[in-house]
From TrEMBL:
Family: Belongs to the ABC transporter superfamily.
InterPro entries, per database record: AAA+_ATPase, ABC_AA/LPS_Transport, ABC_transporter-like_ATP-bd, ABC_transporter-like_CS, BCA_ABC_TP_C, P-loop_NTPase
Residues that span the membrane, as ranges: none
Taxonomic source organism: Haloarcula salina
Protein name in the entry: Probable branched-chain amino acid transport ATP-binding protein LivG
GO terms of biological process kind: amino acid transport
């Protein structure tokens, strides 16, 4: 049900020198599709990086599906069932779509995690090889006709589909998306949203940062508003959109 808490964050703080990027974030995220919004500099990217183990918070805790993952490395977080999408970096643009699907994402230092990232433990069904899972994802995201195409030749939307396919390879519980529709044409925008809703129906949950308020209104079950490193409010899209504090926070940026 949409009320079931899968991610709980308590009093999370992240500092960069004198800058307090996260100043005691408390929130819980249920299953379904949750949007994370907030004015520029609110701390959205920092929050994602703390959740997925790319940054270590100074204070606070992150509990995912009942397990404390605070300070866990990215590979361990991914293994626990929470993954984020990564932009296809320039150095991979000459590799084909299939080759990209067979690669693990980078770790904190920018190094690629070994193939064991996928092969190890429970990441992929025992009977299903990494390659089979990659082909399955390519088909689901309608990238199968592009498998031999260099990733650099893909359109913005096809790239986003590839990023999603890579994130889904490990069969996670929750996927974190950073602006899944940025630079995507309307046709592929619809395809991406359809796939996200298909996956939601299958039981996957999503947390995404998106600046497009229409997308938030039309596709999120819940919305969390960050402001100056703290949660300003949470609620349904309707509640959040009409909240005076939210309107004020955004107007304060102009
Ligand atoms: P935007 O919507 O503009 O991407 P955001 O909500 O993602 O913003 P963050 O990028 O998390 O916000 O930034 C939060 C605060 O932390 C800002 O003041 C930012 O300048 C600062 N900050 C983020 N990352 C770093 C870093 N690596 N070093 C120093 N300061 C940082």
């Amino acid at each position: 049900s949409p009320e079931e808490t899968i991610l709980a964050v308590e009093d999370l703080e992240k500092h960069f020198g004198g800058i307090v990027a996260l100043d005691g974030v408390d929130l819980s995220v249920g299953s379904g599709i949750t949007g994370l919004i907030g004015p520029n500099g609110a701390g959205k990217t920092t929050f994602f990086n703390c959740l997925t183990g790319f940054y270590t918070p100074e204070v606070g805790s992150i509990t995912f599906q009942g397990a404390d993952i605070t300070g866990s490395r990215p590979a361990a977080v991914a293994k626990s069932g929470m993954v984020r999408t990564f932009q296809i970096p320039r150095e991979l643009s000459e590799m084909t779509v299939l080759e990209n699907l067979l690669l693990a994402p980078p770790d904190q230092s920018g190094e690629r995690l070994s193939g064991a990232w996928l092969r190890g433990d429970a990441f992929v069904d025992d009977e299903l090889s990494v390659r089979e899972r990659a082909l399955e994802m390519a088909e689901f995201f309608e990238l199968d006709h592009l498998l031999d195409e260099p990733a650099g030749n893909l359109s913005g939307g096809q790239r986003k589909l590839l990023e999603l396919a890579r994130a889904l390879l490990t069969d996670p519980e929750m996927v974190l998306l950073d602006e899944p529709l940025a630079g995507v044409n309307p046709t592929l925008e619809e395809k991406i949203l359809d796939r996200i809703h298909d996956l939601e129906a299958q039981g996957y949950s999503f947390l995404f940062v998106e600046h497009d308020i229409e997308m938030i209104m039309n596709h999120c079950d819940r919305v969390i508003v960050l402001h100056r490193g703290e949660v300003l409010t949470t609620g349904t899209p309707e509640e959040v959109q009409t909240d005076d504090r939210v309107i004020e926070a955004y107007l304060g940026e102009v």
